[in-house]
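SAMPLE LOG
Freezer: B-3
Tube label: C17
Construct: single chain, 177 aa
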Amino acid sequence: MHSQSPSHLEQSADTYIVHMDSSAMPKPFSGHHAWYSSMLYSISDGRAAVTTSTTAKLIYSYGNSINGFTATLTPSELEALKRSPGYLSSTPDQFLKPHTTRSQKFLGLRLGSGAWPAANYGDGVVIGVVDSGIWPERASFKDEGMSKPPSTWKGKCVADANFTSSNCNNKIIGARY
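STRUCTURE (predicted):
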């Protein structure tokens, strides 16, 4: 006799960035990461027959610019998550090409309202990029209007025959040739 697999085991999983309302976190949790992990466990497909490919998997927790997490979810897990307290939105994770170096203007962020001031204008956030090379002389690397790196920044510009520390500025705050 041939038995069929449960349909939830056949669902493919995709990665999503999930935005949560941090004020909805129940008090018993020690932090947001524990809350997200518990939530993902509770919505995981087939908890009795868990497999790596079908279990909701927490990849990363966010708490500076947004409150939320990235997780691998099946379609039914995503639908269950949407019914969870504190759920605000989800976006499929995808690779994107940069379209600008002045993100605030490109994103339509305003000084007085919305996500930008709520996240303290990104103060103290450092974005790291691993790249096969840059051309510091390009206009997109000019640091006009950029604030100084946060005092907690531990990176540095490492000089080489093809790259001097003078190539660094308030936009290129760490590099090694």
